[in-house]
Predict the structure.
Amino acid sequence: MPSRPQLLIGVLLILLGGMIYLSFRPTTLLLFHVLDGLGMMPLLTLWRDWTAQWQPAEFVVYSLPGGLWAASYILLTYPLLHRQQTWLRIVVAGSVPALGFVSELLQQWGLLPGVFDIADLWCYGMPLLLLLFYETIKQISIWQISLTASTVSN
């Protein structure tokens, strides 16, 4: 189970990515049509009018939300598998960021529709790299503790 701070950070990342998306992305996207069908566009229009005073960089509007959601997925999924083997935890928790990363590469190679953006690649890749770095450091620390314990016992 995620710790409270981890759960809170995961949820905040989802909300922040969502707020950026709803505030600054073009309303021609499918999500906005769905929200309109649900009768939520008047409220969203008020929100967008209020946030119109800010003009964040393209990176913030188009790349950062995906990275925030990828990091949130890792934070919320990884601890749920705490009884599983490390490799399985990494595969499951890293699947969404890896899928985003691969989809960007496929866009670059013309194998998937969409616009390749190196910033998207970084935003999907960084949470995945941090997960792998975390596991590597944790494994090294466990190995050092084990080595120290065996040295002391001899």
Observations:
- Helices lie at 4-24, 30-37, 41-51, 58-77, 86-108, 118-153.
- Residues 20 and 135 are 30 Å apart (CA to CA).
- Residues 118-153 form the longest helix (36 residues).
